Amino acid sequence: MRVLVAGATGYIGSRLVPVLVAAGHDVVVGSRDLAAVDRFAWADDVERRHLDVEDTVSVHLAVRGVDAVVYLVHSMGAGEFVRRDREAAEYVVDSCARAGVERIVYLSGLFPDGELSDHLRSRHEVEQILLDGAVPATVLRASMVLGAGSMSFEVMRRTTERLPVTALPTWMSGRIQPIAAEDVVRLLVAALDGPARNRSYDVGGDEVLAYADLLARFASLAGLERPQVPVLLAPVALVGEAVALITGIPRSTVRALVHSLSHDMLVRDDDARRDLAPGVPYLSLDEAVLRALAGGADATSAGGDLQGGADSDPDWAGSTRTSA
Fold it and tell me: How far apart are CA 108 and CA 31, in angstroms?
């Protein structure tokens, strides 16, 4: 199958590409900056096409002659990201229909009950645009992704490593169902290989736990003693700014992540296991974290550990601890 990966230079995309290549797919990488593809281990194994999802002509040209599109593009920045994401999704749907693309696979996120943040509301809108289009779309709504280089994982890693205690705002009461990066990649591949479905799937790991318990578990697995201290007066916006400062991760992204910590982010049904991964166990939380902490840097190489890091990951990814 000829597959265009939009967002291939991002975290999940960079891990997905070598798996698709190894599975025998003909992979086309779409990027606004084609030179940036050079930093990835799989650069010589793919076709490169210029792709700016905000430019309808660029999208039309990029999807020509492909059988499927994996859409991994999200705007996490400030500004008019809702409008930009909406228009980009509309361009993709229209272009895929005109080009005869057989299916679209989109990676979204789990949605809590109640009011959604602007970022989650935008993702939900994109999801609906894709599902309402003429080309069958499969949407995976993933929980927190565990893996070196994952933004949510690196927020957890860096705050735990850099602070002597774990400050817990009293509103941080949400439960979470994290899933390994390896399993997310496997499910994306399965969504391409199976029959084309026009539906969404909630995707999470085996364990449901409070975010505070996840932080404690991570600290233990990392060999760190981090007492947890409740904090009464800690507005969400202030916590987001503090976490961005501590971790060095972009503010707009951190704010979106922090906002979700007051909500339950749980799988509502487990149809993904039945339809996309029948009989295949997910990685345990402990194994997912330990492999992410192991320090490997071959996650984007053929046969590399998808839980590990990669030399192409951003500067804010990876451990901040120094050896004695």
Answer: 19
The alpha carbon dihedral of 240, 244, 250, 251 has a sign of: positive
Mention every residue, 6+ apart, whose C-beta is less than 8 A from residue 184. Answer: 12, 107, 140, 142, 145, 203
Domain spanning 2-211+242-293, CATH class: alpha beta
- Short-list 45, 323, 280, CA closest to 180: 280
Instruction: Write out the two tokens for 59.
Output: 């999208």
The answer to whether the CB of 7 falls within 8 A of the CB of 40 is no
Residue 10's nearest CA partner among 84, 92, 72 is 72
Helices 151-162, 211-221: crossing angle, 10 deg rounding? 70
Q: What is the pLDDT of residues 144-173, one digit of tens each?
A: 999 999 999 999 999 999 999 999 998 888
pTM: 0.95
Q: What is the DSSP letter of 303?
A: T
Structure tokens, 192: 């391409």
143 secondary structure, DSSP code = -
Return d(Cα 100, Cα 66) in angstroms, integer. Answer: 8
Euclidean distance between CA atoms 67 and 138, whole angstroms: 14
- CA distances for 51 relative to 26, 59, 137, angstroms: 17, 6, 20
Query: Measured between alpha carbons, how far is residue 25 from residues 2, 3, 18 in Å?
Result: 6, 7, 10
